[in-house]
Amino acid sequence: MSNVATTATSAGASSNASVFAQLAQIQSQLAAQNDAIAAQGSAQTSNAIGTPQDFTKSVSKSQYNTVASATDIGTVIKGQTRVNAFGSLAAGDQADYLSFKLSRKGAINLGQLNLDQTRVQVMTKTGVVMADSDSKSGKAYDAYNAMVNGQQSLDSGTYVLKISRATGVKLTEKVNYGVQVAAGDYSKDYTTTIKAASSTAAISSSAAAISGALSDQITTMKNWTIGQTGTQKLMGSMMDLFA
Q1: Environment class of residue 77 by beta-carbon count within 10 Å: exposed (0-12), middle (13-18) or buried (19+)?
Q2: Whole-prediction pTM value?
Q3: What is residue 197's predicted lDDT score, i.e. its pLDDT?
Q4: Which superkingdom, per the lineage (predicted)?
Q5: Structure letter (DSSP) for residue 175
Q6: Listed residue (242, 235, 236, 212) closest to 73, CA to CA
Q7: Is 192 in contact with 83 (CB distance < 8 Å)?
Q8: Host H or E run for residue 60
Q9: In this structure, are residues 123 and 129 in contact, taking their beta carbons and an 8 Å threshold?
């Protein structure tokens, strides 16, 4: 009995240590990115206004996981909101698709975590690639850096983020990811934790897209949790990923 308890305690401590290590890595990457943006005088920086309101929700990705059925992570409003998403690609998963709305034309601030493990592509809602974190993607890579630095303007509308593995990362490896999009400073912070697809009965892809859109609207209204600090929010997201 004592050995079992000791083993369980050790496993729990190891899991917590892993979560804290991941959280520290995220905070370090975000700090470095913000410093880089602030160093560019012509760039649009993204900083919290006072103490932002924090909202969180947890959703399951579509079993079809395509551009048409991308998971909605919120609306980016200049000077008001920032949207964040945390999830993982399980072994064998090719990619995750997330969508966000930009309320009006303007520069965005794009953030990406685990740069050496993940690849982020910004696409139109029809799947046309506009920006790519892969350094070998040419002009798309230039556009990606411009978005990171707050120097790339986008028209208002819906955009899709395709999250996949970076070159050299095996398909058999589980990869955690985190992305965020803002348009300058923000006073409200919305975070979505992306979970594995539900094992519900299969329906047509078009019906899935419609159902997903309705579900996202309902979830947005009902499931936002108010009042968490940024650290609590990140910790909760990472705990879900490592559960």
Answers
A1: buried
A2: 0.71
A3: 84
A4: Bacteria
A5: E
A6: 212
A7: yes
A8: strand 48-60
A9: yes
